[in-house]
Amino acid sequence: MLDKYIRETGAKWMEGEGPHHNIVLSSRIRLARNFREVPFPSLAGDEETEQVINSVQESLKRGESGLGRPKTIKMKDLSSIDKQVMVEKHLISPLLAKEDRNSAVILSQDEDISIMLNEEDHIRIQCLFPGLQLEKAFEMADHIDDLIEESVDYAFDEELGFMTACPTNVGTGMRASVMLHLPALAITGQINRILSAVGQVGLAVRGLYGEGSEVVGNIFQISNQITLGQSEQDMIENLLGVTKQIVEQEEQARKKLEEDSELKVADKAGRSFGQLSYARIVTTKEALDLLSQVRLGVDMGLLKEVDATILDDLMVLIRPANLQKIAGKELESGERDTKRAEIIQKRINMNTDKQE
Amino acid sequence: MLDKYIRETGAKWMEGEGPHHNIVLSSRIRLARNFREVPFPSLAGDEETEQVINSVQESLKRGESGLGRPKTIKMKDLSSIDKQVMVEKHLISPLLAKEDRNSAVILSQDEDISIMLNEEDHIRIQCLFPGLQLEKAFEMADHIDDLIEESVDYAFDEELGFMTACPTNVGTGMRASVMLHLPALAITGQINRILSAVGQVGLAVRGLYGEGSEVVGNIFQISNQITLGQSEQDMIENLLGVTKQIVEQEEQARKKLEEDSELKVADKAGRSFGQLSYARIVTTKEALDLLSQVRLGVDMGLLKEVDATILDDLMVLIRPANLQKIAGKELESGERDTKRAEIIQKRINMNTDKQE
Questions:
Q1: Which residues contact B267 (CB under 8 A, 6 or more apart)?
Q2: pTM given for the model
Q3: What is the chain A residue with the closest CA to B272?
Q4: Where are the domains of chain A?
Q5: Taking Cα atoms as reference points, which of B183, B253, B250 lies closest to residue B218?
Q6: Which of A169, A281, A321, B252 could make a disulfide contact with A84, Cβ separation 3.0–4.6 Å?
Q7: Could you list the residue ranges forming a coiled coil in this record (chains A, B) (predicted)?
Q8: CB-CB: which of A264, A275, A281 is closest to B274?
C-alpha cells in the first residue's frame, strides 16, 4: 500500500523526461488574470467567487482545453493536510491552501496544468513541465488563457496590460520560472557569483519552496521579476537564455569535477547514499542535501545503486504533509523525521529490488 | 584470494570468544626477562644474541610449552612491511620491528602467545587472549616463564626482583593490560571522569596502539604502571577489579542509552554502517570511529546487517601495513585511504552475502 502511494504520489509532472532534465528539474509558467466586473477575491462575496469558478469551468468546456479529463477541487472540501500535500506537489500555492475563501483548483488529468481560482487573483493558470520546456509551458498556458478569454471579460488596461491584485504582477501577469539542481557549481564555489549575476539581469533566485525559503539540496528557482514593459516572448527568451548559460556552467563544473576530483565526488555520493539507506532520523533539509549529492553521483555515472528520479520523487514525498498523508495521521516533528527515514528507505529499496 | 586474506589475516587471538567480549576486546600479559650472563640486547654482540635465541628455543622443547607447533621468525628475514603487519596484529612490538638487531619472535600455532627475543630485554613473553581472561593469560605466561627458567639463568635480584633494560619494568617484569571498547561511556560523557579515576589507582590509560597513541574508535588500553613492590597476583587482581567496574559502568551506560535514546543510537550506527558500506576514501581514524558506532549498534541489537567481529577483524585489517600486504605493493597515504574503503566493503559484503 505504501509502495503504491510512493509510486503514485511523486508529482506527476516530474515523471516525464525533458531537455536538460539532469540539471533543469522543471519549467513553470503562471498567468494571473481577473474578471473585469468582479471585485478581487479578497473583496468579493461568496456569490461572486462562485460565479468565477463556474464561468471558468464552463469556458474550458467550450474547446479543446488540453486538460484531458480535468477535475475541480474546492478548497473547503479538503482537509488541511490534503491541501498541504497539494502545495508540496507544487499543484497549488501556499496562499490558496491558507486563505479561508471560496476557492478551487482545476487540475488537468496529468496534473501538469493547474488553474487556481480565487487565490490572490481570480484566475491563475499554471503549467509545470519537467526539464527545460518554458516555451512549451507558455504555449499551453497561452492556449488555456485564450480559451477562457473567449467567454470571460478580463480586467485589461490598454496601457498597463492585465490588471492584478498585486501591482508586481500587472502587465503580462506572467511569472516564468525554472527549478535548477546545481550541485557542481556549489561544490566548486562558483554558485554565488553566478546567482548574483542572475540578479543583475532582472531575474530573482529563490530556494526550492519559493519566496523566502532557504536554499536546500542545491536546488534553485529562477524567475522573472518584471511583468511590465516586456512581451511574454521577450521575458521567456531572457530567462531561457540565462538558464542555458547556467546549465552550461554547471555542465562545465561537472566536467571539471570529473577530471579533478571524481573519487571525492563518488565518495560523497556513496556516503550520502549510505546514510540515506540506513539512517533512522532525517530532517527535510538534510535529506535534500544528501539527495543532491546522490543525484550528482548518479548523473555523473559514479553511483549505480539508484536512478536519477530518486531526487525528483523524494523531494516531494519527504515533505511534512506527504509524510502525514502516508502515515494516515498527524505526526509531530520528531515522528516526521523517523517516518521520513522510513520512506526514503522504501524508495531506495524499490530501486535495489528492481535491480536484482 | 583477497577474501582468503581477509578471512585469515584477522589476528587469530581475536577470533575466539571470551568473558565480557562485547566490551573487553582482549587481555594481555607480558613478562620481561633477561639472561644473567649476557649483556642487554642493545649492548650485546651478534654471537650473544644468537645464543639467547637458541637457548630459549631449546628450553621450550624440554617440556609441554603450550605453543602447539611454534615457529621462530627472525626479524632480519622479514621485509619492513611484513614486520609492520605483525606489529599491527599486536604480535610483536614496534621496537622489535624497528631495531636492526639480531632479534626474533617465537609464535605459538594460534598466535595467542609470542615470545620476543632481543627486543629491549632478552625475552618478552606475551599472551594475548580475547575477552577478559587476565588470569588465564598470566597462567600461560607464567608456565612458559617456568619452562624457560629451568634451563636459563635469569638476571634476578633478591631485593628488586627481575632485572630489566628499562627501570620501569624492574621487579615483576610484568605488564598486564586490557583493551576496552567503551562507546556508551563516551556518548554519555562519563568517560573522562572514569579514566581519570583509573589513573589515580596506579593504572595507565592509552589508545589502541599503545603509548602516545591517540584514542580512536572509543578503544582504550588500561595497564598496570607499577612493577615493583606488588606480587603479580595483586597487580592482576587490581586491574581485574577496575576492569570489571568499568565493564559494569559501560553496561549501565548502554542500558541508559537503550532507555533514553535507542533511536539515536540506531540512527548513528546505521549511518556509520551506511558510510562504511559506500565510502570510497576512508582514513584509519574515521574507520575506527565509524566501526565503533557500528559495533555498539550490533551489541545493542539495533543493527542486523553485520556481526560484532567486524570491529575486531577490521581494526587490524585496515592498518597501513596490512593494507599494503593485501595490495601486494607499497601504497601512498591517499592510495591507502582508497584501499581501506575497498577492504571494508569486502568485509561487509562477506557478512551480507552470508545472510542471503
A1: A279, A280, A281, A341
A2: 0.89
A3: A275
A4: 1-19+28-171, 256-353
A5: B183
A6: A321
A7: 240-267
A8: A275
